Amino acid sequence: MLLRLELSALLLLLIAAPVRLQDECVGNSCYPNLGDLMVGRAAQLAASSTCGLYRPQNYCILGYLENERKCFTCDSRSPYNDYHNPSSHRIENIITTFQPERKMKWWQSENGVHEVSIQLDLEAMFQFSHLILTFKSFRPASMLVERSKDFGRTWKVFRYFAEDCANSFPGISEGPAHSIDDLVCDSRYSGAEPSTEGEVVLKALDPSFDIHDPYDSTIQGLITLTNLRVNFTRLLTLGDTLLTRRKRNPQDKYYYALYEMVVRGSCFCNGHASQCIPVDGARGDTFTEPGMVHGRCVCQHNTAGYNCERCQDFYHDAPWRPGGKADSDVCKRCNCHSHSEKCHFELARYLATGGVSGGVCDDCRNNRIGPQCELCGPFYYQDPQRSVDDPYACIPCDCDLDGSVDRGLCDPVNGQCVCKQNIEGERCDRCKVGFYGFSRDDPSGCQLCRCNFLGTIQVGNPCDPTTGRCICEHFAYGSQCDQCLPGYWGLGNTVYGCIPCDCDIGGALKTECSSVDGQCKCRPNMVGQKCNDPAPGYFLAPLDFYIYEAENAAPLAVISPFIGPPPFVYPTEGIPERPTKLPLCPPAPKPSSVPYREHITVQPSPAPHNPQVTLPMCEHYFRQRGYDFKISNGRLVVVKREKRQTRRRRQGQRTIPFEPGSPLQILLRQRANDQSITWTGLGFVRVQDGAGLRFTVSNIPATLDYYVVVRYEPESTDDWTAIVSILSIGSEDERCPNDQSNKMFTLPASGRTATLDLPVCLSDGNQYHVDITFRKQPSEDPHSSSFILIDSLGLIPKVESVPNFCSQSYLSQFQQYRCIELAVQAGGQTLPEVCEMLIGSMSAFIHNGAVSCNCHHVGAYGSSCSKFGGQCQCKPNVIGRCCDSCAPLTYGLGPNGCSPCDCDRSGSTTELCDQTTGQCSCRDGITGLQCNRCYPGYYGFPLCRRCQCNRLADICDPITGDCLDCREHSAGRNCERCEEGYVGDPVSGQPCEPCLCPDLNGSGRFFAFSCNKDPRSGAPYCECLPGHTGPQCDSCSPGFYGDLRLPGGRCKECCCNNNIDPRDGDACDPVTGECLRCLHNTEGPRCQSCKRGYYGNALAQDCKECSCDRRGTDDSKCPAGSPCFCDQDTGQCPCRPGVQGALCNECDDGYWNMDGDYGCQPCNCNREHALNYICDKITGQCLCQPEYGGRICDECGPNHFGNPDLQCMFCDCNLEGTVHPACDAYTGECLCKPGVTGPFCDECAPGHNNNFPACEPCHACNHLWEKIISDLSLDAERIETMMPCPEDFRSRPELQHLQNLLEKLQNVLNMGAQDELKKLEELLARIRNETEIIDPNIIIIDPTLLLNTDIDYIRLEFNKLLKNLREKAKEGPVTDIKAVNDIFNKIKKFYDEFTDSEKKVEAAKKVQEASRKTREKVTLELAKCQIGEMDKLERKVKALSAANINEEVCGAPGDAECEKAKCGGALCGKCGGPDCTGSLPISLNASKLAEMTEKNITALRSQLKEADAQLRNASEMTSYVKDQAENMMDKINRTKTKYEQEKTDTKALIEKVKTYLQDELVKPEDIEKLANAVLSIQLPKSPDEIKDMIEDIKKILANITEFNDDLEYLEKQAKIAGNMKERAKEILNRTELINVKEIEKALNDTAKLHDKIFNDLDEAEQNNDVIREKVNETEPKLKNIEDHLNLTRAKTLLDEIEALKNKTEMNRAQGKEAKDTADAALNSANDTGKDLEELKEQFEKLKLNSTNQNVSSEANERLKNITMEAENLAKHVEDKMKEIEDLEEKILLSNERKDEMRKELEALQKEADDLKKFIVDKVQRYNLCSP
Questions:
Q1: Of 326, 389, 541, 1690, which has the most beta carbons under 10 Å away?
Q2: Coiled-coil stretches, from where to where?
């Protein structure tokens, strides 16, 4: 009964647990618990190798403990049982059972099998977490873990494990992994330690990587599996499997043994289940296997499948996905509104609905369609009274069959019928709006109304729904309202319907336009829709277009009785006149090289200021012959009379002169870019009172009334009167009767234009003379001018006289905007748009279209002109509307415009020049285009004087008067001396005669400076050039060469680099210059290199003999009797192969034996056994690995044995107890010394005492006792072996007696060494125990082998480090070669003295080496001697001759008596003597000589060190001074750059503030805003901070020089600061809302602070004087140091300056950023100012409310607080105003600092440039042959 209750409780627990777990899955992802996948799957677990599976097998373990059993038996034929079969080691033993004695069972493989696999097969897909393997044996040397996801069809490797990954798994990375799925080899779990219970751990996911998506395909591939396989590939052994000298089999100790294998995981449910059940068909032993992990998920979240990998049926409204935090949108139920029970998922619908629904219902009922059966089928629609779930909710459609489509199809939702295209209505029973004619036969149902919607009234239906007739808008007509009335357009082209044409009244021919596009019909050359724009190349003429310049008018006779008739002046050079007809600009004249066809110039005398031009006496003569006189460029010119000029003169026309003195005078006015032009044409005509002008008008465009306008400029304040008379020349015009009466109007002094009140009628086609006489009105001022400046005459059409032109409204606008008054003014004022439009229309009307631009093809940039006015774009100095004339004082109209005359005022009579040639009018004796030079033969412009050249030259320099092109071989400023190569006296008339040195000067063979006459003989003699000699300088001096027979030959200095005697005439070839007698051991055609056998710098006379070691030098380069041939530059000797060093005196790495017959020999070190290829350079011994030896490491080393080609093993012999080489090279048996025994020769042999390693023999009797005891022991052992068995043995008295006797004998024997014998007994007992428990075939593993290997590795690393240390020790400080040249010369003589000693030492070394080799051979032979070979050794010793040995050692045979033996002997107490040549005396002499040499070299080294220290001290001092100078320069440059930027920014800020504050229109509110912006800048507030700032400034200024030039600038800046202070005071006076008392006080304090700054600056200037003196003292020292520095100093300095410039640019950029920050702060301050204003306004309102109302106490308190805040704010503003003054001070100081820094930088730049020039000059000199 109790058992039944327990079983029931267990069932309830099992049922309740899943329910609780499933509740956790609601709304969240859930996962089954992890477990051991091995549990319950013993049948699915297999191993490829198991020990004792078919028969019992023996195996052993490794152990070193005594009395420990080492070998056991494995019998796995039956399962494991604690009592009956504990030796079973099947694979199921590794499944964890948590039993107390779980270490008593394990799985074990067969012995010596390397490749073994363990495989776990799962029944479904599982999720894998990690694997843990716990080994009983060593862990495998290499293994790998694989997984399968397809039940074993394919496998993938999880991870590799190996002790040596590179050898076990080549090509596999050893990590670390770069990504979570990287395949790497892990070496952490494959070592020899621990020997048992070692673990191998594999995690499916590396925890070092972050996992963002656990359902990523890569992650899923790592954690899911159906099969797991562990492959062991190689056993871990201790190396004894390779040994062959033992008898036992080592394989029995090596196998795989596992205590347990844990595979942690869970059933894979994709996050949709927390419980799993057994898979169908699997064992149902859930209750018998607790902890088993099953493979089928109990799915939640509406999922299904073994792994919950899909949705349940009818749950497809949301897609399946792995479990997440919120799983409400996974596998949702489909919504088919009860019309279907089947659905499927469509991704397209899911995406289209934005992830809301993806389920599509299948097989909808009740006339339903749609993804959710939510729609009615065709010809049905949803009944609005029923729900969607109602099976009767879809009802049939009710549509008009004539107006609907598809037999009455309707909308399935609202029942709306589907109408034809032009039908509407719920039942499709009427036409749409805009359509008419409902018809069954019409496919569209109704016809479209064809009305133009722009021309139709948009009210309701645009046409009748039955007839289709349209209803038109205004100005539209037609059956479809698609046409505009005449005078309108735009229907269909604009959005406004029919709009007026609005054609231009002047530009269009009529008011009507095209009804399509509104284009008006234009007059010629007019374009645009309204015809109001001129075509390209045309323009609209303004009102004042018809202008007649006064300069082109003819003079009228003087009418005043007080003024005489003006003198008759003939026409000057023609000025272009306006043409008589359009086009108004004439074509450009072709340029001509001469301005006149024929002229004769008569040069007059210089004219006074107001000259009266008089004709010459020959006037009558020229006039009779057809010539006339004219003034051109200030000269009276006779020109050929032309017919037109004659006709004009007959007509009484004359021109106006340029010269003063006449009633009329032309005044040209030059135009400037910065001057407004208030005149037209070239200038004015200055008209005297009573004089007049005649204007010829011949280009009237149309018969109209015109206003006469006169433009002028008065010279006084008096008004003038103009009398106008118009004379018609031509036929009369009835429309314009000729009125020749005089008309008068006033020219007021205050104006610039005057208009005749009444217009005059002028007809086109006629020519008119408009005569105007100017009279000055009476004036009270007697000194007022009687002249007036007349500019031009203008004709302005009267708008009212233009027939049928414009309406009264246009005329009213014309008058309202004063269009005529504005058009009359000169200067190109911009007219109002209304005036410009009306005038343009009138111009097009009058001229029948637009007027052609006619821009001059040379003077204008193009053919286009301005649309209104027609002004062309002129080139420089070109004027006129058409750009056809040169401006005054210019000439030569050409492609680049006109050129300025630039007449020299001191050489010309006027500023005018010929407009064609540009020739100015020159004074006497002056010529040139600009009258700027003297005539040839004269100089000294403008006071030209005749050249003084002693009649030997015709011209001279026009400025200095130096004569040019002197004749007759004369020279000099005044041709006062002879040329070089000539002798004479040109001043006294003595001609220049040639000198022959040896030929004439200029012949190429003149080799003298000059020649002179002998004062006695008068014969000329030569003064030879350097290098020439002889009476005629026709040969070269000694040390010079040259072939003087060739043209251009010269004697040049022989370039032999100072290596010849310059006094030796044969030192170089006199013709070729080749050096023949080189000195100082040099050779070559220029003595430029050292002789063979010498090296050094031949240019510095420093060629030294080569000192090559002949042993290591190439024999072909070392001839007998002469030094070896080394490199002539470096002294490097030509070494034999394998030899190195400058003198070829040492072997190269990899070579040895310098004393060999052929130099150094290769080491030939064994590549496999040597540590490197380098050997000892004397002995040739290679550096071997620890286990190898021999000279080239081709033998096993000491204490090692074996085949060196395969492996050398450690003998482990005790070196103190062995003889060389410690053990047998083939068997490894230790070779013990006599008296030593043991397998390792580490103990004394029997019969010897125990004092190891001495092991002295015992007494002779000891051998007898030892033999007796040994025999007895053998008998006792024999007796024991004869016993049947130990159990049946019974002690007998006889045997017991014998045993006792044996013990007594042993005690007797041990009386001498009892302790030692006891140890031997213990050792014997241990040996017996080991013999009993150890297999006879076992190999004893010595653990010291591993320790020795580690020691060898440490030794190898130490040798490498030692080698690196030696190489670095060889590197010494590099000393400048030039610095030690002098010291090296001293070494040279010491070296010569030591060379002989060195050779003696080398000879002694050879003898020593031979002696050492002899000793080594003897030692080696002695070591090889064995006890059994002593007779051989004795024979060899007897064969030795003492006399011979004595002779080799001491120098003489030792057979003589000691008194007679001069060299002594072995028995004489001495060896060697003065003349003895034995090895010992030679060695002693060599040692003494070596000691002396070492002392001398040590002394020399000391001297070298002292010299090197002095050089270093000098270099350090130089570097220190240089660094100090550079630091000062850097500091100056940085400071200058910083303040230069601050100065620029500060100046810009001050200018902006000054400009703003000086504006009188600035309001006080704006000033306050500006003050707030400035006050927002945080500056030092307290006087102490300001003082600290000034002290910092003084410290900076103390390191800067040259203040004097800046003090004046500082005073100016102080004045500016004072002005700024006054301006600030004005600002404060204007700021009424701010209390200014504190600000005024702050300003006064600022003034005092200014004075203090001045005092501080004076003190700084005094300090500067002291610094300047120190700098002056330092400059010579710096200069000397710079001279001794390398030539790269200049380049370094320039690079540093360039770096400073770059830093300056960086500081400038930072300054700009600071300025931007300041601007941002300023804007912020402005915003703050606005907030302050708003606060003040609110405050005023609050005050007003408080006075008008009775408020509560709380409101009053609030008002009080606000008042206090406002007062505090006002005080804050006052404080900020004080900070403004501080800012001004800082700005001034910054400006001063910037200027000072700039000057310092300029001085440093100049110093650098000078230094660079100096260095370049030095380099150029050094590059020459001689300095």
A1: 541
A2: 1294-1335, 1385-1449, 1485-1554, 1584-1820
